[in-house]
What does this fold into?
Amino acid sequence: MKGSTQESAFAFLFFTLFTLSIAGDSITPTQPLRDGQTIVSPNGTFELGFFRPGALNKLYIGIWYHNLPNRTYVWVANRDDPLVNDTGGGVLRIDRDGRLALLNRVGGVVWSPKGATNVTNPIARIQEDGNFVLTNSATGALAWQSFDYPTDTILPGMKYGWDLKTGLDRNMTSWRGPDDPSSGDYSFYMDVHGSPQFKLFENSTLKYRTGPWNGLRFSGIPEMKTYDQFIFQFVQNPTEVYYTYTLKQSNIITRLILNQAGVTQRLVWLDAQQIWNIIWFAPMDPCDNYGKCGPNGLCDTNEISLCDCLRGFEPKTPQAWYLRDVSDGCVRKTALACRGGGSDGFVVVSGVKVPDTSRSMVDRTMSLDECRGKCLKNCSCTAYGAADIGSGSGCVMWYGDLMDTRTYGDGGQDIYLRLASSDLDDEHHKKKLIGVVVAVVVVSSMLLLGSSFWFVLKRKKASKVSRRGTQNENNPENSTMGMDLPLFDLSTIVMATDNFSNANKIGEGGFGLVYKVPFFIL
It folds into this structure.
């Protein structure tokens, strides 16, 4: 009986310790994490532990949503260094130098985080925002965090971009497949050349870009203005350049991902339907494909052919262009003057995703007028625009060919395209001709309308006269109605004609004799 009691007490103690190990939120030098155990964030939003995806005999450390019915992974530690055929499982622990390390069953280090430094009093925690951090438990100083090393997901509060001091590039890389978290063919990262923008690559092939931040949103994502529950922020200074987002309501669950098919998606969890709802994705349409219309081309989904040349440009190879091979793009109709600006000028191209800014120059202190003047002084400058459309300030100048420009029905911005004087005159002539055509059409329409109105009135008047004549014929008593002739009795007529005297007769005709009478008698 006594032995049974001791065994029960030991079992209870073991169960309690095991429960604590999977119910806590931290790993310490004396409390590692083993295969089959997990740690959970303070309010139960995220969970970290070991997992084996699909039928693969590979073991990974990952983070997923704790309370969602279908496990959704947001980070994988050892995506390219899994434990393979390791029947003994693995252990994630803090070594004696204060660094995280994933060990196999024989104690070999399989994975250790990049950028981690030695830490005194180390502790590793999974936070409520999904960030797995290694800190000094006494001072709280941060030594390493998973938010600096995304896999295929950007969560609210993450910095997505560059630490320019350390060279740290926070970017997304897709999974290899639905059950294979190893690095796939697609990557989505920030290009900091010129005006920074995010670019999507399939291996080394550029597939899509967001366009630069224009003070309100990314130039190529006009849908951002409709997300009133999101707070977007873009930070650019000498030490870092990044994009981040937060939510106005903390109960909204959302993530930005790059899936294994190379599509960037923003998803929101719908609790009532228990599904992830896609509220945005890219590439979204043919015009999102990078350089769809070639250099100096303009893509428009409202046009059957999709592609046209920018104003003042024409197809470089017309025959290929009309066969829908637009890869060569467009060239200028007339070369620029390039003599301190000379007679060159600008036309506005409205409502567009601005051209690729990789080779652009940005000056956020310059006014738009100053930007125009500076562009005219540089022969290579082909267009300019505002860096911040919210305030209409700042300057972006493009050099050389303009790539990947497209139109939007709503939400695009304006750029000012440099043209030679003759092309500006052609544009003026076209506008003048359009004005003349419109005027002629308006005047012709008014004349036609007036003529039609006159004709209808005339027809109505003729119809009335015809009806009146018919009525008079059908009713002899009324035959004299409406006539302006006076009626006289016979005695008056006899007296006036002197009893129908021949002296008063002045003629005769088909209606009888005609007599003259003194005017005063009538």
About this structure: The helical segments are 2-23, 318-322, 368-376, 421-474, 490-496. Residues 421-474 form the longest helix (54 residues). The chain is about 20% helix and 35% strand. The domain at 21-149 is CATH 2.90.10.10 (Agglutinin, subunit A).
